[in-house]
Each structure stands twice: as structure tokens, then as C-alpha cells.
Design a protein that fits this description.
Blueprint (H helix, E strand, L loop, with lengths): L2 H12 L6 H27 L1 E5 L2 E4 L3 E4 L5 E4 L10 H31 L5 H29 L11 H27 L2 H4 L3
Antiparallel strand pairs: 1-2, 2-3, 3-4
Helix pairs in contact: 2-3, 2-5, 3-4, 4-5
Length: 197
Amino acid sequence: MTAIGAQAQRLLAHRRPQKAFFETLIRSLIILCVAIAVVLSSISVCDGRWLLARGELFGLWHFCTVSNGSVLKCSTELGLANVEGLSVGMIPIRSMVSFAVVVAIFGLELLMVSQVCEDANSRRKWSMGSVLILGSFLLSAAGVLSFSILMKDHLTFMGFTLTYWCEFIAAFLFFLNGISGLHINSITHPRNRVGKI
């Protein structure tokens, strides 16, 4: 056997088995859903206007009043809203939801890299990405819940704006995809086979 033939045999012997079609499809759908959640969360954080109540628009970054001519008068001084603790309470909420987007972007990057560059660490990258997505869920859900608690006196179901629901849905998608990512990793690579690889 020639040297090239021997090298080809060694390469073929060390190749990992091909992934099943459905595994690839599910992993691709998880990546797509995480990307959608990142976009929704980014839009929600950047716009930041989450609650309309009694002609006032409360947000992460602005407080706005709606005049009778439907013209918004906005201010970054949240103390003008006359809501106890709003200006101080909004600081950790802004931090949580903004950091959730950053963590989700890193998680998404790890998920994509684990699928594009398959190597010995692909499973670990996928798991780390899924854990980061779950961390993003925790931050995002804590921000949404904290906002609701802070604004409890002004809450109405119809008062929540579209950007609030974007963040709510993004948090839900982060949870589903983080759990799904960890689950598919565990069922496609059982722990007893990991030691043999």
C-alpha cells in the first residue's frame, strides 16, 4: 500500500459517523429559533416602550405622555412619571434584558460554530451554547417579571405594548431552545458513549 493510501485509510478510520438527517434538521431549527428570539429581544430592548396606561407610555429608556393630538412627549427623566422607585428600579431591569441579548448572541454563536466546524469539541460547544441560551432566558424572564412588579399599579392586559410581548416571547423561545438543545445533545450522544470517543 502506498503512503497516500495509508494516510487515506487512517483518515477514514478517524472520521466521525455522519449525523442523521433529523438530528441535523432539529439542530438547524433550534439555531433558527434562537436567532429569531435574539432579533425579537433586540427590538424589544432597543425600542423599550413596554406599557401604555392612562395616556402614559412607560419604557425602559423613556417616559412619554400622549397629548390629545396623539403627539408623544418623551423624556429620559423617569422620575417625571410619578411612579415610586421607577427611575432606580429600571436600571437593573435594563441591565438584565440588555445582558440577556448579549448572552444569547454568544450562545447562538457557539451553537452555529458547533455545527459548522465539527471537531472533537462540537458536543461541548453545543452544550455551552445551550446553557448560555438558558442563562439568557433567566435574565430576560427576570427583567420582564421585574418590570411587571414595578409597574403593578398601572398594569392592564391590554396595556402591554407589542415590544413587551416581543420580549415575553423571546424569553419563552430562549427557554424552549435551551432545554431542547441540551436534550438533543444528551439523546444523540449518551454519556456512556462519550468516554469511548
